[in-house]
Amino acid sequence: MTYGSDHALTCRACGTMVEPADRSPSCPDCGGDLEVRMQPLPAELPGDAGGNAPADLRRYEGFLPTAGTSFVSMGEGWTPLVNAPTLADASASDASQPVPDIRLKNETTNPTWSWKDRVAALVVSHAVASGADRIATASSGNQGCAIAAYAARAGIDRVLVCASPSSEPPHCRQMRAHGAAVVTLSEYDGRRSLLEALADRGWFVAYDLPEWFGGQPYVYEGYRTIAFELVEQLGGVPDTVAVPVGSGAGIYGVWKGFRELTAAGIVDETPRLFSAESTERHPLACAYNANEETVGFDHGPEPISTSTMAPTADDRALDAVRESGGAAYVVDREAVEAAIRACGRDGVFLEPASGLAAAAVSRALADGAIDPDETIVTIGSGAGISWPETTAGAVGRAPTVEPSIEAVADAVSFSLD
């Protein structure tokens, strides 16, 4: 199959169609953002068609722009959607009200433990199709791990990850285990100029650079599969989906998925999307609350949710919140840590970014923005195990004691009898 024969790139601003093989980073007519348009979508989801569809991203082969690529897959996607009773109990705003129905989309079960694997599968596949033999990216953790793993799987030997000073050792070790060269940048704000210099040298940059074709616009295509899975797993569309926001690509991708399912007649409605950001940095919420058309910058202190520390977000994320009838929420460190503990009791250890979304659900229920009778989904975007320092405040540290009953009894909060 010819490369790109199943999709076109369409300008969101003026509608100009661009052939994928042209590798244009933006609209040649107006400079607007390009996004993938499948031509056409299948008429039904795999579960509706019967048979034995793969339990990974290949399940949605007809929905994904993979024509002409050797699709790199490692079992990403089709992640569990589990009940979160402890989070639901903690989120109940009034004892007289019913306990809300909260489901957790557990993205920690992806191969490198985060939803970035959905992105890497598409981006690396297109990098290989373009003839790339070297890939570079910048990352605070999850994306670097995903790109490194999928690039290794694709047989790409030269992979460079420019890590943030806030990246924790487990992530850097994981990237190195996948064969990537990892450097920590002393000034992370300089990552774009560095990546542009690498692009000048012929590197495929899996990062959004305005003047270069890279991971965009295929990033959104990986995230939109979350919408497909939710519809299949629930047997319909949830009422509300809460999504952590850094750059905003995730929430827009989920919205794009639901929007396309509706346009194709596969579902009749879309959910409301609630964005979740930290009190330290919340550029999307600032734009939403001020009724701005574009998202500005928020250079506040670095939040506990390191992977959402971007000082700005994609305008498409703002569109997703508004078009869906949702809202933009801001939550503080204490609420994030409480959400991590609650989800931990439900069996899932979340990273702080995921705690943002779970905490936002609690806030929205308390505000009355979400009705407890609704079907609510919170996206658990990544695993807490990779962030030992930033999760320490939520879960504490294990004490070292002598191997005696007395010493252990003094160290734990319950009776040993």
Structure commentary:
InterPro entries: Ser/Thr_Dehydratase, TrpB-like_PALP, TrpB-like_PALP_sf. By secondary structure, the protein is of the alpha/beta class. The chain folds into 3 domains: 1-40; 81-111 and 218-395, Rossmann fold (3-Layer(aba) Sandwich); 131-212, Rossmann fold (3-Layer(aba) Sandwich), CATH 3.40.50. 35% of the residues lie in helices and 15% in strands. The chain has 14 helices and 13 strands. The protein has helices spanning 46-49, 85-91, 116-129, 142-153, 169-177, 191-200, 218-234, 249-263, 283-289, 315-324, 333-345, 352-367, 392-395, 405-411, and strands spanning 7-11, 17-18, 34-38, 81-83, 101-106, 134-139, 158-163, 181-184, 204-205, 240-244, 272-278, 327-331, 375-380. The protein has a 6-stranded mixed beta sheet, with helices on both faces. Strands 8-7-6-9 form a 4-stranded parallel beta sheet, with helices on both faces. Helix 3 crosses helix 4 and helix 4 runs parallel beside helix 5 (169-177). The model has no long low-confidence stretch (mean pLDDT 94).
